[in-house]
Structure formats: C-alpha cells, structure tokens
Amino acid sequence: MSQRGVVSERTRINWLIDAAVFGGAVGAGVTGIYFLFWPTGRSSQGVTLLLERATWDDVHTWGGLLMILAVAVHFLFHWSWVKGTARRVFNAMRSGKGKFSSGAKLNIAVDVVIALSFLLVALSGIYFLFAPAGGYQGGRNEGWDPGFLFSRTAWDLVHTWSGTVLMIAALAHFYLHWGWVRKVTASLMRSVLPTSARASQPARQSASQSTLP
Questions:
Q1: Quick check: 62 pLDDT over 90?
Q2: CA-CA distances (angstroms) from residue 42 to 51, 63, 132, 144?
Q3: Which residue has the higher pLDDT, 58 or 101?
Q4: Which runs of consecutive H residues, i.e. helices, occur in the chain?
Q5: Are 67 and 52 in contact (CB under 8 A)?
Q6: SS3 state at 49
Q7: Which long-range contacts (CB under 8 A, 24 or more apart) does 194-203 make?
Q8: What is the per-residue pLDDT for 121?
Q9: pTM for the complete prediction?
C-alpha cells in the first residue's frame, strides 16, 4: 500500500496547533489593521467597513485570545526544541564558535523577534481586555485610565507597534517554512479523502498525461 498521504500523529497535532495560531493571527491581524486605519471610531459616524465596529472589536478580542492560547500550546509542544536550541546558542556564544548554518541563524533570529513581539502584544492586549475604555463605569468615563505601569496611550503604542512587528516576522516565518506547510497540508488532505477518491487520483493523472503530445 502506498504511503502517500500518511502523516504521523505528532505532525498532525503540530499542524492543527499551527492552524489555530494562524486562524487567531489572521483574525487579530486583519482587525488590528482596521483599528490602525480607523482608530477614532469613524464607523460610528456613518462609515461601516463590512462589519460594525463592535463586531470588529469582538473578532479582534477573540482572535487574539485564540492566538495566545494556541501559541502557549505551541510553545509547550516544542519545549524540547526551544530548550535544546537555547542551550546550543548559549554554548556557541560562550565558546565563540558558531555551529549554525546561515539558514538556521535566520530562522532563530525570526523566532526570537516573534517571541518578543508576541509577548509585548499579548501583555498589552490583556491589559486592554481587563482595563477597557470607560472601565467599570459603563463607558461613562471614556478618559478612564488605570495607570498600570504606563499610561493607556503608552500601552496602545506598545500594542500597535509590537503587533506590526509580529505580523511582519510571522509572514517571514511562514515564508521560511512554506515547504513544510505545503507538504504536510497536502498529505493531510490526501489522508482524509475517501479511499476510492485517493485510488482514482493516479488514474486521472495518468489519463491526463497520456493526452499530452
């Protein structure tokens, strides 16, 4: 029996975790771009872009929470790799002898940027989740600011720019791992197809090839 389409359980779980991260990131990222270009609630003044502003806010909040949860699971799932790579980097820096290829160095650098920017965007996002505008006064005081560590304006700048850096770094990460994403996704799609459909695919491919000049 052909092994095409056979995916290990660990790879399948890894793909599902990454899919959850991707889904949450898309929801938070697209809505974040919306709030970046419409920061003052223009939709409430008669301009609605596909959805109401409150709906954009809900998608941003729940997409961000999904991303945070999925990234936490992703981190735990890859803890051995993180720990081993951190040890290798530390040993290489201490000895002064690099043992990483240029591709590995680029991958590690992108992962570090993702980790730091994600930490900042997650912390600032949690701040806004528990300290929304108006606080516990039912929104009657729009200027309410709990002043936790920084001002609300400072938290907003941290959230905006760390989110921007995270999106750029995430796109770079996706590009660097596109081969794995495409290969595993194709294998998973083949594995869930009915047996008859999988069996007919080679026949259709052979028939199409036979018609070529």
A1: yes
A2: 12, 22, 19, 21
A3: 58
A4: 9-37, 53-77, 79-95, 102-130, 152-176, 178-192, 195-210
A5: no
A6: strand
A7: 198/5
A8: 93
A9: 0.70
